[in-house]
Amino acid sequence: MSKKFGYLTALLGLSLLASAQADLGADEAPAAFGAATALTSAPTTAARRTVAPPAFDPRVMELAAAPSAERIEADIRTLIGFGTRHTMSQTDSDTQGIGAAVRWMKTEFEKISAECGGCLEVYEQRTLVKAGSERIDRDTEVVNVYAVLRGTVRPNDYVIMSGDIDSRVTDVMNSTSVSPGANDNASGLAGTIEAARVLSRYKFANSIVLAGLSGEEQNLYGGEFLAAKAKAEGWNVIGVLNNDMIGNIEGVNGIINNRSFRIFSEPYFQGADEKTLQQRRFYGGEVDGPSRQLARYVHRTTQTYLPQLDPMMVYRLDRFGRGGHHTPFNNAGFPAVRLMETNENYNRQHQDIRTENGVQYGDVIEGVNFDYAARLTGANVAALASLGWAPAAPTDVALGGGVQPAAKLRWKPGTNRNLLGHKIYYRLTTEPQWTHSVWVPAGTNEYTMTGLVVDNYYFGVAAVSRDGNESLVQFPGSVFRN
Fold first, then answer.
1. Spatial separation of the C-alpha atoms in residues 106 and 91, rounded to whole Å
2. Neighbours of 101 (CB within 10 A)
3. Distance CA 29, CA 420 (A)
4. Side-chain-side CA neighbours of residue 283 (13 Å)
């Protein structure tokens, strides 16, 4: 039996197991609960026998495996060929500088769109940053390039993947020296372009945006401008996956690892109001904001569709004292996370190309592992496709059951044509991931779990489509007492 066939057979077994559990009305309770904590629900016996969703979507499995290391390598080599992509480098050359890189990326998106019959809407966003702004010493036009694969059901619901166009050397104001930026961040940008190629094979219910953002090294300008546009135009941003350095496997710490990657996320929105903060203090959920749910989602889809990868959640907005292009989206109130390699090599970041005491410095192509970059691109694609096909998330999720031997949840379903039902997720308050779930078929918008004391667990609700794709888990935003 081939490994691939064996894996598919195992997943089919999981799907059959899920259906069997659905006949009982709930997933198997964790052993630690004991027999006295059996779960019960409001639905009738007939409703509980509704078939549970499949364990995986074969289309997502195909897409996750589709990114090409060869195409990613070719794109990284092209980006390196522009000499420097510094935000303030030249813009009038066809072969050198940030201007040439921006035009090349736009052309690549247009080629992809032509091959899929015009499925991508390709845009440039140009914003003038005046001299005297942070890390800008001359009037500079910051240009983002992005492509929209427009959703067929909810076109104003957006899932975004981004990479950075610009590069730098040691001196952040040096706009002329050669700065290949092979890993930081031609790898993330090449992954974004490759994701556009792969995802353009399908249509999705929600819109998917593939974005190249400029000005990251200067002051996160590109992300700030696109986030402002999304907010001004009323985009419903489901989540942003910022890819910044996805090609290095040799850490400065001596570790070589081509299997793991990190997902950075903030606990809740920076702009959370005082009422929300007090509610978190009183009812819990300090690590359960939308960005954290997005990080858990990427973790889960990676484990489902790319089991050879080991995603690592990091409970920080970004690396210690550093930043990335997901932060402006967080600041604007959108769920956003950073995906990147686990073991960084600081000798290859923000460095002039040189050799000192036998040590090579500089972000050159020899520091990029293309197979690894392709796998991390696949992790992005799995999450993007799953969210692209996911139903609208439930709203007004409320939790009850205080001073009772039962946890209770209520919610309002989103407007969905393809809704099969909902999953109630729960875990101990000290656990980092959702560990258990209960399946609730469509038509039931409240659920009681008898024997599960609400004090000891966190809960959330996700909408599930007929093909098994889920929305982000929605953490309860209110409580009720009856």
1. 14
2. 29
3. 22
4. 21
Instruction: Lowest mean pLDDT of 72-76, 304-308, 448-452, name the range.
Output: 448-452
Handedness of CA 209, 53, 392, 314 (dihedral sign): negative
d(CA 366, CA 96): 21
**Cis preceding linkage at 206, omega within 30:** no
Which residue type sits at 135? R
Give me the mean pLDDT over the 454-472 stretch.
Answer: 97
Question: Where are the chain's structural domains?
Answer: 3-57+394-479, 60-388
In DSSP notation, 356-387 reads ETTEEES--GGG--HHHHHHHHHHHHHHHHHH
Q: How far is CA 102 from CA 82, 89, 148, 370, in A?
A: 10, 12, 17, 22
Q: How many Cβ atoms are within 10 Å of 345's Cβ, its own excluded?
A: 18
Which residue type is seen at 179?
S
Q: Could you tell me the fold of the domain covering 3-57+394-479?
A: Immunoglobulin-like (2.60.40)
CATH-assigned architecture of domain 60-388: 3-Layer(aba) Sandwich (3.40)
Structure tokens at 266: 């903030």
Give the amino acid at 191.
G
Q: Give the H or E element holding residue 208.
A: strand 206-213
pLDDT tens-digit series, residues 396-436: 999 999 888 899 999 999 888 899 999 999 999 999 999 99
Can you give the pTM of this predicted structure? 0.90
**Beta-carbon contacts of residue 144 (< 8 Å; ≥ 6 apart):** 124, 125, 211, 212, 213, 214, 222, 225, 226
- Name the residue with tokens 């104003």: 156
| Helices 290-305 and 370-388, axial angle in degrees (round to 10) | 110
What is residue 50's predicted lDDT score, i.e. its pLDDT? Answer: 65
Single-letter amino acid code for the residue at 42: A
Across the chain, mean pLDDT equals: 90
- pLDDT tens-place string over residues 303-356: 999 999 999 999 999 989 899 999 999 999 999 999 999 999 999 999 999 999
Give the DSSP letter string of 143-185: EEEEEEE--SSEEEEEEEEEEE-----SSTT--SS-B--IIII
Comparing CA positions, the residue from 288, 286, 302, 133 lying closest to residue 220 is: 133
Structure tokens at 80: 């390196």
pLDDT score for 15: 41
